[in-house]
Predict the 3D structure of the following.
Amino acid sequence: MARLEHYRDLIVILTQKEMKVRYKSTLFGYVWSIAHPLAFALVFFMAFKVVMRIQMEGYAVFLIAGLFPWQWLSNSVNASPMVFLVNTSLIKKVYFPRNILPLATVLQDTIHFLLSIPVIVLFLFIYHKSPSLSWIYGIPVLLFIQLLMTYGLSLMISSINLFIRDLERLTIIGVTLLFYLTPVIYPETMIPAQYKTLVLVVNPLSSLMISWRNLFLNGSLELSLVVTSFIYSLFVCMVGYLVYKKLSWKFAEVL
Amino acid sequence: MRERVIVFDHVCKRYSLYHHITGGIKNFLFHLPSALNSIKNSRYEALRDISFEVYKGETLGIIGRNGAGKSTILGLIAGVLKPSEGRVIVRGQASALLELGAGFHPELTGRENIMLNGVILGLTKAKVLRNLDKIIAFSELGEFIDQPIRVYSSGMLARLGFSVVAHLDPDILLIDEILAVGDAEFQKKCIDKMMSFKKNRVTIVFVSHSMPDVERICDRVAWIDDHTIKMIGSPTDIVSGYST
């Protein structure tokens, strides 16, 4: 019992540390974390709406609703190869469950995502839409699913990267490829029929990202998508944990 | 019968040298047969057939040259490493102090780092908060406590680190050459604190190169040479043997 309490405190304190470090010595800490996905949205808006003239109402708010949750995932996953490496001294010197380190990183990005929801609301208002009551249960459900997914990926990548450092580069490429294979900047209805299974079913992130966007834009939550994304997340999380379990006792030796 | 707190039972520790893979997948795949072979063979033996016991309330000193395997022993007790052969049994919470200031972050203030370090070393948040004033007073850092620790000198960092450790209540305390830093006055303070831990029946494992400290503090000393125990016994015997 006392041990559980201590682990909880460890998670809290390490997450707080990440937040503090992120905002220390920057003038506009919070603004930066929102500026990034907003800048992305602007680029895609210019490319697809202004230049390529995509036929779609409210493409800007569509982009925002998809890019913010994606940003959370990609930030956490892209940071994951370094999670254990930057904590070398800790891992070599003190015993504690090492999986708390990636968890703290993922939680920190989760908090950022939550803090960015007001920006989504702002864009909804600009486009004469409004938040829906279904957010009250929809956001926690999707939040939990994405937390599982992100934590699983992060745990897996951070563990393996200690043994095979090439993973660091592969992760960046992988996340970028996945971004274009996931309906974030385009609606799923525009995908050519022959690629539909690949993008919508094989890609473990599609159902989750579509769910987020539908929830933000019109307050709807499709059960089949939620179930699919939950199964994928649970699977990824379990694989991540198994990989971590298998490798973690060697961490202090290879660092 | 005295209670045994730490038991090493014919412990061996070998490290595989992983640099073949960490050198890159490309290298690894291009030289696959030789790479696989060298993984199998290139093992580094850090400890060979070590057996000893530490009893409750006892202070064991570990001496030996650099690279003899002293830190590996502390790592095994702390639970950070696993033995390749043999058994390591540790009863109670080992508070690892293999290094002062575990997890310190240079951008955070002294006060924030006390919190971070305290929780990492096994305290709950509430407990650190309760002791915060005492810890700050012990560190004698004054107004520096609210400065980011990147402006601290190494002596000040050691003070901060030891102040946290001094307020832990571990069953087992592992100390790896911390007395080497800090001024004479601070070193005396550290020794005093260790003596008071000793009085409170905390089991201490103490790695040091300072023979006077070892003789003063330890009840028994193990001399590690060439990855195994060369001698173990009373401080005066071992230290005189080691020094000659």
Notes: The domain at 4-15+45-243 of chain B is CATH 3.40.50.300 (Rossmann fold). Chain B has a mean pLDDT of 85. The first helix of chain B runs from residue 19 to 22. The longest strand of chain B covers residues 4-16.
